[in-house]
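Ticket closed. Logging final result for Fe2OG dioxygenase domain-containing protein.
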Amino acid sequence: MDIADAGKSRTGTPTTYDRFQELKTFDECKSGVKGLVDTGITHVPRIFLRPPEDLAAGNPVSGEQAQTQFKIPVIDFKDIAAGDRSGIVAGVRHAAESVGFFQVVNHGIPMNVLEEMVSTARGFHELPQEVKAEYYTRELMKKVKYGSNFDLYKSKYANWRDTLFCVMGPEPLDPQELPSICRDETLEYSRQIQVLGKHLFHLLSEALGLNHDHLEGMDCRKGHLILSHYYPACPEPELTMGTTRHSDPDFLTILLQDYIGGLQVLSQNEWIDVPPVPGALVVNIGDLLQLISNDKFKSVEHRVIANHRGPRISVACFFTPHLYPTTRVYGPIKELLSQNNPPVYRETSLKDFIAYYYNKGLDGKSALAHFKLLQ
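Final structure:
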């Protein structure tokens, strides 16, 4: 059966269903979810369907009252250049400890840089299939690659999303490895986002009561990845997800999202929308920062719902050395520990943490539980 038709026989009970073969067919097409949509499908293929037990269990969904009572914090950086940091540090501390998410405005990255990054990210994903296919791979160490669902063969169901994945540091990326349609814009965005990342890590260090350069000294900003996500319009969005609930395997994520929305954060057992704010960037704490802060900062679960509207474009910057070879191990910061605040996590290398995360896939469970010490 052609993968584009795989969902059309759902009303009956098929005598055979070779899920692996359908995944393989989808993978070998090298055209992603965008390629499926381009065929004119009117049903979601079976490999993308949330399983019955997942649908039956449901998900905590915020009601109108919760949405009006709680908002993702928006922090204004306009006074940071003037040295007025105390209020900003307090805002960052509150957001990192309680929500794990916040939005920043007046962050210093020009609006045209943001707009061009979104535009050229969309431009890449809308290139002819044969052009994009040259970048399609599941090779772990490849620095620039295009694909759909890094955990395709491990997840219970595939997500309605394609991704251009670029390792921008710590080793300088050869610009020629980037697709020409988004090369200059990605390099400029990378340069600008590193500056913002420096400010954020300084603020987060101060929010922990440490010297402003403490987290930088731990190489938290040493490397970063840029992931350009493309969520096509979905014919049956209630049956799948744009991105399954998860937390991020990094120190810090900065997200640029377009106007469509769909990002939700799990807070107090409610899914809270993170509405697009013109010119704002979304910041969230990653698993590794929760680990080294000994649970003081929270890496919270989030998801992206599928939508009839689309395509939705988002560009995520993950601050992590990722697979860069290093002997450094990470555990709770010694200066934060005391008799009343003993370590919650064991030490781990980045290699071991990433390996566990990738092998686990987006299964709706936090990777941090695996690294917790027995209390």
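The longest helix spans residues 183-207. No further action required.
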